[in-house]
Design a protein that fits this description.
about 325 residues; alpha/beta; two-stranded antiparallel sheet; about 15% strand; elongated; disordered N terminus; disordered C terminus; ClpP/TepA
Length: about 325
């Protein structure tokens, strides 16, 4: 607020000899007012001002209102229950959000410079490839790429393939992928120079069971409550196909079945006739039965023995 200096003025009384009985006072101008702000402007300019964050939404809004309609600030109602000028905001925000505040070096020095990788990338860093879905084209593409990358990184270190998949079908038996999806991953495994440690967790059905048995001999494992199952390939939905096209597809399925039988017989060390006979209907195997059939070599159980994955995973081998 402005203060004022008041300068006193004398009243002049004019007297006249001819009018001795009457006298008249002369009106004097009002007192002069001098603003203290003008006098102290030079001293006020020397007072240091605190730094203001230009990104603070409260200050930005306040400056915008002051420039456009300053009467809003002057006529703002004073409510003792709320801070001043808070009514200018639809959703009050007194401070800048953490993302808007300039972080100091000491606060930000331990934060990652880039977003954290996704889970498959973290597993890949431990040379683990996880198949946790039916074998559809997207899964096949990712798995083959990961296998090729791990061999390029180190052709001598083993690769750990964890399997929990229903193969080229869903759990209800509906076909979701072609048999070539499983054969593509199988061929990629056979081309690798690395040892392949396969571990069944959950289920390994159809083509997934073939991948489980295709691991390096002696390095094929199975969790104690996991299930393996081999079955004949299924004909995809024919829809409105002509009869000749359905026959062509049926012949292709038979060829894929014979190929699957031959590969399973090779890796389980059973005869082709034995594998073909059990595949007439879905053939389920628990861990012990899968070991007897030759799909796996050992069963994993809880303990403190060293097991696949290159470290201690609180599992032990059950012979």
């Amino acid at each position: 607020m402005a203060c004022f200096l008041q300068a006193p003025m004398a009243y002049a009384i004019v007297s006249s000899a001819s009018a001795a009985a009457s006298s008249r006072a002369v009106r004097v101008p009002k007192p002069l007012k001098l603003s203290c702000g003008v006098l102290g402007a030079r001293n006020a300019a020397k007072i240091p001002m605190p730094p203001i964050n230009p990104k603070d939404p409260f200050l930005s809004k306040l400056a915008s209102v002051a420039s456009s309609s300053p009467e809003t600030l002057v006529n703002s109602s004073a409510n003792p229950d709320t801070p001043p000028f808070l009514d200018l905001f639809d959703s009050p925000k007194l401070m800048a959000t953490p993302a808007q505040v300039e972080r100091s070096v000491s606060y930000n020095e331990h934060r990652p410079k880039s977003p954290p990788p996704d889970l498959p990338s973290l597993l890949l860093n431990g040379r683990i490839v996880y198949i946790g879905m039916p074998l559809v084209p997207a899964v096949t593409e990712l798995v083959v790429a990961e296998l090729m990358y791990l061999q390029w990184m180190d052709p001598k270190q083993p690769i750990y393939l964890y399997i929990n998949s229903t193969g080229t079908t869903r759990d209800d038996g509906e076909t979701v992928g072609m048999e070539t999806e499983g054969f593509a991953i199988y061929d990629a495994l056979m081309q690798l120079q690395n040892e392949i440690h396969t571990v069944a967790v959950g289920a390994a059905i159809g083509q997934a069971c073939l991948l489980l048995s295709a691991g390096t001999k002696g390095k094929r494992f199975m969790m104690p409550h996991a299930k393996a199952m081999i079955q004949q390939p299924r004909v995809p939905s024919s829809g409105l196909m002509p009869a000749s096209d359905v026959l062509i597809r049926a012949k292709e399925v038979i060829i894929n079945r014979d190929t699957l039988v031959e590969l399973l017989a090779k890796h389980t060390e059973n005869s082709i006739e034995t594998v073909a006979d059990v595949m007439r209907r879905p053939f389920y195997m628990d861990a012990n039965r899968a070991k007897e059939f030759g799909v796996i070599d050992r069963i994993l159980w809880r303990g403190q023995e060293k097991c696949p994955s290159g470290g201690y995973y609180s599992l032990k081998l059950v012979s």
